Amino acid sequence: MMDDLRVLTGKHFMNGDEACAEGALAAGCTFFGGYPITPSTEIAEHLARRLPEVDSVFIQMEDELGSMAAILGASAAGARSMTATSGPGLSLMMENLGLAVMLEIPCVVVDVQRGSPSTGLPTMPGQSDVMQARWGSHGDYEIVAYSPWSAQEMFDLTILAFNIADRYRTPVLILGDEVVGHMIERVVIPPKEQIDHWGRKRPKEPDNGRYEPFKVEDADLVPPMVHAGEGYRVHFTGLTHDERGYPDMSAKTHHQLVTRLVNKIRNNADQIIRTEGYYLDDAQILVVAYGCTARSAQRAVREARQKGIQVGLLRLISLWPFPEALFQELAEKVDTIIVAEMNLGQMSREIQRVTGRPVRGVFHAGGEMIPPESILEAIREAAA
Amino acid sequence: MTAVKVADEHPLDAIIRADRMPHIWCPGCGIGIVMRCYAQAILDSQVPVDQHVVISGIGCSGRVAGYMNIDSYHTTHGRAIPFALGMKLAKPELMTTVFSGDGDLVAIGGNHLIHAARRNVDINVICVNNFNYGMTGGQVGPTTPQGARGTTAPYGNPELPFNLPYLLSASGANFVARWTTIHVRQIREDILYAFTRPGFTFIEVLAPCPVGFGKLNNIEDGLEEMELYRQRCVRVRDGDVRGDDLNIDLREDKPIYVGRFADRDRPPYEPVKVEVK
Amino acid sequence: MRQEIRIAGFGGQGVVLAGYVLGKALALYAGREAVMTQSHGPEARGGASSADLVVSEGPIAYPFVQQPDILVALSQEAYTKFRPSAKPEALILIDQDLVKSQEGDHVYVIPATQLAEDLGRRIVANVVMLGYFTAVTGLVDPGSMIKALETSVKAKTLPLNMSAFHTGLEYQVDLENKVAMGRTS
Fold this sequence. Notes:
The complex is a heterotrimer. Chain A is an alpha/beta fold. In chain A, 39% of the residues lie in helices and 21% in strands. Chain A folds into two domains: 2-194, 3-Layer(aba) Sandwich (Rossmann fold); 277-383, Rossmann fold, CATH 3.40.50.920. Chain A has 14 helices and 16 strands. In chain A, the strands form three sheets. In chain A, strands 2, 3, 4, 5, 6, 7, 8 and 14 form an eight-stranded mixed sheet that branches. In chain A, strands 11-13-12-15-16 form a five-stranded mixed sheet, covered by helices on one side. By secondary structure, chain B is α/β, with parallel strands linked by helices. Chain B has helices at 31-44, 64-67, 80-90, 102-108, 110-119, 164-171, 184-196, 210-214, 222-232, and strands spanning 52-56, 71-74, 95-101, 124-129, 175-180, 201-206, 233-235, 256-263. Chain B has a single domain (25-263), classed as Rossmann fold (3-Layer(aba) Sandwich). By secondary structure, chain C is α/β, with parallel strands linked by helices. Chain C has one domain: 3-Layer(aba) Sandwich (Pyruvate-ferredoxin Oxidoreductase, domain 3). Chain C has helices spanning 15-29, 76-82, 112-119, 125-137, 142-150, 158-170, and strands at 3-10, 33-38, 48-56, 70-73, 91-95, 106-110. Chain C has a six-stranded mixed sheet. At the A-B interface, β3, α4, α5 and β10 of A face β2, α3 and α5 of B. β10 of chain A pairs parallel with β2 (71-74) of chain B, so a sheet runs across the interface.
């Protein structure tokens, strides 16, 4: 019965925020701590109603600092935990996002992006948190972020986010946007047995308090995860720590630790990255887009193809880690790269960096979706 | 030179990470006393050691998590309480204790402190109050008396401090106590008592910080501050002293009220459960 | 073929529910693609509110309504505000007691609010209009609409909503003006 309530198998007509919440439930999320903020609030509202039905915790925290800390505490005790927010809240979560990286505590952070900076456009879309997602917490680290373009993907990628978070012991961001969050579409929820559940790598039996919780024995660089109350008597600290988890204020240990944390994501990037290509085989013009903007880009590319222009679309489903090899390969094949994004050139800068090529931007600061016509115009100009 | 005999065993070996000694605290510091009381309370409690979890924030008192040989989480500055809340709600069988300092819990973490007390979430907080930021070298904080000196208040602290028993009682904690580092038995007993009490419990322990606070405020050393505690402490009964009378200024010769200030049965926070037909 | 529909009225007339039921009928039961959007800004509070639907046979890339093919207006303010953005030849459905349309409009009229009041609750005027919409446009079959209604309204209000839907569905459509939408392409 409980499982039936967790996975609402069937076809639904729901918005992206609700689909995200249902994705969390289907993924086995047992703890949500959050603070209301437009345009993500429907996720909290939906989970406030649904989590208590499946014997799980919903708590509205006093702020986003507390929300982020609470989901880490819950995850450290073994829960699959999540929070949801928008730009201003994401800013407040950044310090503890770094703690999640350092302590290797899996969690899912959903950012339904709105027009920014500051309070910006609370009820209107943006995609300008892309670089904050990448670099927002202090220090060197790698992050995982997915960018859904439909209500269906808000569901699907939330499940993937939990699985990736657990497998690599890392925070995973969902970078949605107001359009995708509020748009109502068909969402198909598969039967429970078709939903992937990868789980965490778990330690061997406790050995009289001698367990080394940050010792890595596998090629994936991921140490098994000990949960609170299991008898291992582990120490987790945000200070630079050795394999025992003990603080070690040495340059050598620091370099080793940070390098491992970074390589843990970089070396496994192929397993984490998701992209989708349309008409790429013979494309001379490459359009790159993600999130809701990719919908406009898809229509623009389709219309341009009808006019005989050799254009293709690469949709980034994951934003971080960045698919460097793929871009280097594509850059060899195409004449022009067009990047459409609802910011003034964040991902395009990354693409320029990786390809060493200039990029034509179709940029908008946010507030409304970039219309297909703007992207089509850029394609036409490039083809002329 | 006399030969020094190092004891082979210590009664708390089982619960202290001996391989992490020596600790970082200065001579005369009071934190170790409070940690010892906490360690003893864990051993004396009816709760298995492996169900005890300690969560700390940042600062000298925050280092306690690293010295306790139980599951221990040294988190970010000010966020120990919400981290502990998440942990407790996710795994209610844990005996979850936040051990941290006044700057961490009351300044940067002050919002979480009052909201956790308001919710009456079932965690224990042990707050070592040494009236300053010790780890960073003696800056004033939200518990520094007005006029007292700190490295960021060289002309004296222009601000009024919090009075923690008053704040926590008003915020809704089920159990609120204050002791000083001379009250080792009472601290241990009240920590033990807090383990048995549902809801939010808060124990403030006044502790010397001779290097950070004492030096700038004419308190010669840790012992002298302990002597002040001994001379001035007055035990309240049934919370009969309230409000501003609970303010503390070690530079003034007036009573320091200690004891229990709240002990009540507001319902602890429980996550909502729904029976679906 | 991509078709754009806007259902508009004043707050409390249930235009969002109407849009949701129609979108659900199309996307889940009628084998079509449908995306619904609404305005969430401060302008969405009070005054004219609307629910927008894009309907198509294939996947819908751009989800927003740009120039409605069909405008349903339940209030004069909504009509005045949204008529200019609709196609000149748009099909327009109005509550005849509440909306006066401009000359030259391709209009279908129904006293939806009056009919709802006759059923006992003016609040179901939106569902009367949905029934009428189903009959006028032919865009969606009544069976799909009924399934969408059954799964979208509270069980205890279902009988009233069904009556409202049938009232609209069976309301006489002026055959002179009937244009089959959606089935033609």
